[in-house]
Automatic annotation (TrEMBL):
Protein name: Uncharacterized protein
Signal peptide residues on this chain, from the entry's feature table: 1-21
Keyword Signal listed: yes
Keywords per UniProt: Signal
Originating organism: Candidatus Nanopelagicus hibericus
Top-level taxon of the source organism: Bacteria
Length: 407
């Protein structure tokens, strides 16, 4: 009799588990945006009725970005309806080379974009000596302009209807990569990384909405990077990235640790939390509201995507790691979302056994359990979520961007 009841319990548990297991669903883009060169989308923003993407194009022309390429690369911004219909776009280009890396929406509905740009320099032509022989009267070609490294931070302000309102520029000494733009009531805050030969440091830069910059503040000096950030209700900032050096008297615990910074509204580094595993290199690449963070763990023989939900700095509520070929990007909506290139099993999706690595989108519940799972046609490069549209993922196949919406 005991064996009978035990068998019934096992069967019932198996049926319950199967019924609650997530099934991998296929997704298709609402629209595909083709390109011919090394184009990139770096940011996606959502309003209640539209999807706004920003990035960089090197394609000479485009069917979905107005105008022709001005430099080697141009920044751009484009807006689409929740159904994928084009609304407006604007090319952020000049004779210099530009990249657009992050964007944020202000309270008035305007969109602020940051990126980096070079200076276009025309060398002085070598004068022909007055006594030089030139029997054929050959006309020398004008000296071609050359570009400096991307050592300038560029800021654009775009209206909600797609018109350029303002642009500002900060000139730095070294190559600079602004990774995240945050908007406050009166200022813009830019965070990212500065490169100097073989070293890299994180940075904080504040600028007024009229274009007045404060002095740049650096974090670390050898191997510290900032990849993303969010604003907190108290005006402070939570930023994420990686570091292999001493910060606030806290030593690295592995080759490179994933680090989370708390930074005051004035740019003062107040707290550093390190996530580490011995003999690994870790990095946070993404953070969203509610302290949902995504990143990667690199071992000597494998890579894992890491997703963690925190209640406070350094205090995880839940965390998961999956066999992967990429870092995890995250977005927080009514639930938590993450996307990465999966190369192994996913707990909660028992039927998922990929023969080759494949991009996926996973929805998590309040305790980190898998609620839904989706395959993507190409790897994701940006993700965002809101209550009105749902979860939006921008994919990149190498020849076209895809706009995917999951409600």
């Amino acid at each position: 009799m005991k064996r009978f009841f035990l068998a019934v319990i096992i069967i019932s548990f198996s049926v319950f588990s199967s019924a609650n297991a997530a099934v991998m669903k296929n997704t298709k883009p609402l629209v595909e945006l083709p390109y011919t060169k090394a184009d990139q989308i770096s940011s996606v923003l959502l309003t209640p009725i539209s999807i706004i993407i920003t990035g960089t194009t090197e394609s000479p022309s485009s069917s979905w970005i107005n105008g022709a390429l001005a430099g080697v690369s141009d920044g751009f911004i484009a807006s689409y309806s929740s159904l994928g219909a084009p609304l407006w776009n604007i090319r952020l280009g000049s004779n210099a080379n530009e990249i657009a890396t992050s964007a944020a929406i202000d309270l008035d509905g305007s969109i602020w974009i940051t990126g980096a740009t070079s200076a276009s320099v025309t060398p002085n032509p070598t004068a022909i000596p007055p006594k030089a022989l030139n029997p054929d009267n050959v006309i020398l070609d004008p000296t071609a302009a050359v570009s400096t490294p991307l050592n300038r931070i560029k800021i654009w302000q775009i209206s909600s209807s797609g018109n350029l309102l303002n642009s500002f520029e900060y000139i730095g000494e070294n190559i600079i990569n602004p990774k995240k733009l945050l908007v406050t009531d009166s200022n813009l805050i830019i965070l990212g990384s500065i490169y100097d030969k073989s070293s890299v440091a994180g940075f904080y830069l504040s600028v007024s909405k009229s274009g007045v910059f404060t002095p740049i503040i650096k974090f670390g000096s050898k191997s510290t990077q900032i990849n993303s950030a969010i604003s907190n209700k108290d005006g402070s900032i939570t930023a994420v990235g990686s570091s292999g050096e001493l910060l606030l008297k806290v030593k690295p615990l592995s080759k490179v640790d994933a680090v989370t910074f708390k930074i005051s509204s004035a740019g003062v580094l107040q707290q550093v939390a390190r996530a580490t595993l011995k003999t690994t290199s870790r990095s946070w690449s993404s953070i969203d509201a509610g302290l949902l963070q995504g990143g990667r763990v690199t071992y000597s023989n494998k890579t894992e995507a890491a997703i963690t939900k925190f209640s406070a700095l350094g205090k995880p509520v839940w965390n998961v790691r999956y066999s992967a070929k990429s870092s995890a990007l995250v977005a927080n909506g009514s639930n938590s979302w993450a996307t990465y290139i999966s190369s192994g099993a996913i707990k909660g999706v028992p039927a998922w056994k990929p023969k080759t690595p494949a991009p996926v989108l996973i929805e998590f519940g309040k305790k980190g359990e898998v609620i839904s799972s989706h395959t993507l046609s190409a790897p994701a490069v940006a993700i965002a979520a809101n209550n009105e549209i749902g979860t939006v993922v921008i994919t990149d196949s190498g020849v076209a961007f895809g706009l995917v919406v999951v409600n």
